[in-house]
Design brief:
The protein has 236 residues and is of the alpha/beta class. The protein contains seven helices and twelve strands. The chain has a single domain, classed as TIM Barrel, CATH 3.20.20. Helix 1 runs parallel beside helix 2.
Amino acid sequence: MENYNKMVLTATTANSWIYPECKNWAETLDDLIEDVVKCYEAGATIAHVHLQRGKEIETVKRIRERCDILIQAGMSSDSIPERHGDFEARPDMMSIILNHHDEHFTQLSVNKLHPLDELKEYCEICKKNGIKPEWEVWHTGSYWNLNYLIDKHLVEPPNILTLFFNWPGGTWSPPTADEYLHRIKYMPENSVHTVSIMGAQQTKIASLAISLGGNVRVGTEDYPYIKKGIPAKNNA
């Protein structure tokens, strides 16, 4: 049998900011734990979780007591001081955006800068706490910052990347095959990538990514519907 890489599935369990009318995500900590466990049982390898402030350690502990899913702490829009509890909880991975936040959702907008000094500090803190950075790539300019960190020997391979498409705002990119192929063309060496597509084009780009050795992220944060007009029962 020929060797092949298994596809890694990330389940993102948070609320949907562009489909707030679709209330199919966990709202309590108990429900979140159950949602993550169901995702693991359905085949997810990674759970992308927005750890509730003040309950980060408890959340990570309770998930690990129930299953062996890898825990990825989200909310890259928060500052390093705001994520102090995330570091203390020591999830397996932490989401870190490689560029600025410029997102415009249905009920709120997010606009934050993340300069190189912040990225360097993330590298140091993650290394100290044994947390693997998961780098968020919104356009090819993100790679310039990542290559800078690589050249400074601040990150260790493999580079875990999530490529974002169709998220509304000034960092938007089209959910097209051309855009996906352009993005992977310029990835640094020793990189593993996952795609996150907000909206109904998710299946098309995810299928292309899988065919080219990529991985996929799905769940209520990205697109809470099975197909247009039909909400998913849960993230599993």
